[in-house]
Specification:
heterodimer, A: alpha/beta, 15 helices, B: alpha+beta, 3-stranded antiparallel sheet, 21% strand
């Protein structure tokens, strides 16, 4: 039987600790759940330290500390210190808001290995942020703080229709700030980004231009800065393996302790996910229904189950199948073979046709008020 | 970085960390959000790259430890590849 689910999975190499959903920013492309404001109950310091220990015992090596904005946790240094002591490579994923010299020194002393700075703070001032010198000054200050601690300088920018035309300026700024790696990640359409999809989906011409600009910079910068351009799957007609395969190496723990095989899996209907308050990480990883349901290829239906690419893409993303086809067990609709692919084509064509009038569909900012409004079931 | 020679003293690059992982039964090289699994010989070479030992010294140790001879070309070629990946750096 060619069913990876019947084999024992390898270790959860990547442990992503989403320490809090609190965040000073209101990014319209955020992948945090829409109802984040209804989940205020965060794990305690001791809970996190136990999760780190249990994950490490299973063989986890990379630890991402994320959120929300993880700097809002007062115990971040304690968590970093324990992660480092256990032998994790520790990555802090931050907007840089709140990263003072003192905090950076304390995190360095705790053993933090790396800071990934998101370049784009897509706040309410998004439309003029690129011409806004304040943004640059803040990032410049934070970049200097990161460099002074000897951390590798890794920057991340989420691209979308409203900023992608400024890509030349964005890469230029990253180079000026001394980034060694720059990830230009096209928006993935889940949660808040899905709410705002019509406003955020770029045109093909925009994407082509952006890739050309990135290629030209790559030649110009050589080894000085490495550029990664993450193409959007809506335009590619090709499904991507989700988190390198459901339950194959990636484990997320949300602020309230729910363990997930990917950041957004909690949205999937008909599937419950275990909580680290009640279960050990070992039981969660190997034995929970939540992690086993979509492991391997055994769960697949046609056209996936007989597809020659099934081992490469593992049917794509379950959340995307649910969001676009209302069924998490079908092929990812971004695949041209999916019977629901028309819904992706339709969204891309709408993007080609022009911007949706902002007055009809204003951008929905990720903030507690909108969260509470949108999580109330419609009557 | 200067051209590689047998007197070169390589060390692990900034932002990289090498460690033994029992769960994977191999040495791994960790870096921001990523990991490389090292095979046996790569692990044996890299764990000796501390910025103190020259390639000559590393080759000497390996030849003694594994009762082998003529390992210089293999070590040089690995260090060169690792240098291109920034896993190893030298003056």
């Amino acid at each position: 039987m060619n069913d990876a689910a019947s084999q024992r999975p390898g270790p959860p190499l990547w442990l992503l600790a989403e320490l809090t959903y609190r965040c000073p920013l209101h990014c319209v492309f955020c992948y945090n759940p829409i109802d984040f404001a209804n989940q205020p109950d965060e794990l305690s310091t001791d809970d996190w330290l136990r999760v780190l220990r249990e994950g490490r015992e299973l063989g986890a090596v990379q630890c991402g500390l994320s959120g929300g904005e993880p700097l809002l946790r007062d115990d971040l240094e304690v968590i970093v210190a324990e992660a480092r002591r256990l032998g994790y490579y520790t990555n802090l994923l931050t907007s840089g808001v709140g990263l003072t010299v003192e905090r950076a020194r304390a995190l360095k002393a705790a053993g933090l290995d790396h800071v990934q700075l998101s370049f784009q703070d897509s706040t309410r001032e998004m439309n003029d942020f690129l011409s806004h010198t304040k943004t640059f000054e803040l990032k410049n200050k934070v970049a200097q703080i990161i460099k002074d601690q000897g951390w590798p300088m890794v920057m991340n920018v989420v691209l979308h229709r409203l900023n992608i035309d400024h890509i030349d300026r964005i890469i230029g700024m990253a180079a000026e700030l001394g980034a060694e790696y720059l990830e230009l990640a096209n928006t993935q359409y889940y949660s808040w980004a899905f709410q705002n999809r019509d406003a955020l989906l770029p045109t093909r011409a925009q994407l082509k231009h952006a890739e050309e600009v990135a290629d030209a910079w790559r030649v110009k910068l050589g080894d000085r800065m490495r550029l990664f351009f993450v193409a959007p799957d809506y335009h590619e007609g090709k499904a991507k393996k989700c988190v390198n395969g459901w339950g194959s190496m990636f484990l997320t723990v949300t602020p309230d302790g729910t363990a997930l095989p990917c950041h957004t899996a909690k949205m999937l209907p008909g599937l419950s996910f275990p909580n680290v308050r009640e279960h050990s990480v070992r039981d969660i990883w190997f034995d929970s229904e939540g992690f086993n349901r979509y492991r391997g290829t055994g769960w697949m239906k046609e056209p996936c189950s007989s597809c020659e690419h099934r081992e490469e893409d593992l049917g794509g993303c379950r959340c995307q199948a649910f969001l676009l086809a209302n069924d998490p067990t079908v092929a990812d609709p971004v695949c041209v073979k999916s019977p629901h692919h028309g819904r992706v084509v339709e969204a891309v064509e709408r993007a080609e046709a022009g911007v949706v009038a902002a007055t009809e569909h204003p951008l929905v900012f990720r903030d507690p008020k909108n969260s509470r409004r949108l999580s109330v079931p419609s009557v | 970085m200067t051209t590689l020679a047998t007197s070169t003293k390589p060390r692990i690059g900034t932002g990289f960390r090498m460690q033994w992982e029992p769960a994977q039964n191999c040495h791994v090289l960790l870096y921001p959000e990523g990991m490389v699994k090292l095979n046996g010989s790569a692990g044996e070479i890299m764990k000796r790259c501390d910025g103190e030992r020259s390639i000559d010294a590393i080759v000497g140790e390996l030849e003694t430890a594994f009762e082998a001879k003529g390992l210089t070309p293999e070590v040089l070629s690995f260090v060169e590849i690792a240098g291109k990946q920034r896993w190893l750096v030298w003056e």
